[in-house]
Amino acid sequence: xxxxxxxxxxxxxxxxxxxxxxxxxxxxxxxxxxxxxxxxxxxxxxxxxxxxxxxxxxxxxxxxxxxxxxxxxxxxxxxxxxxxxxxxxxxxxxxxxxxxxxxxxxxxxxxxxxxxxxxxxxxxxxxxxxxxxxxxxxxxxxxxxxxxxxxxxxxxxxxxxxx
Length: 163
Fold this sequence. Notes:
The chain is 50% helix and 23% strand. By secondary structure, the protein is α/β, with parallel strands linked by helices. α1 (41-59) packs parallel to α2 and α4 crosses α5.
């Protein structure tokens, strides 16, 4: 059994999704969002770091994956996203958990079939693929899609690395 945590970083909401993989069986474990509070950037980054760190303690994943920063229309937004991503990745790195990074477009293309799919389409496909009784939030669905993508694309490599 391999446990993967997916992270959808955001400066205000960071989504997470945890899935166990046993061969071709995909077992939903947990998902949700770290809601960031605080006025200063340092406070917000601390919340993200501590939230991801707590999830790693709770779920003990074998692997992690995260969405990479994409070019945003607003450079300020891209910088904030990169900082939030850095806080999440730092928590993962301090525990020496192998990390993979993927663009939102490649995840969407693999899970939905279109690289420009909207959040609701990703949410729907994740709900169907994991046979969930109710859809996760959009940010959690993106994180679950990241974990699904990582395992489905690299299943044999992942299994070999963890032996």
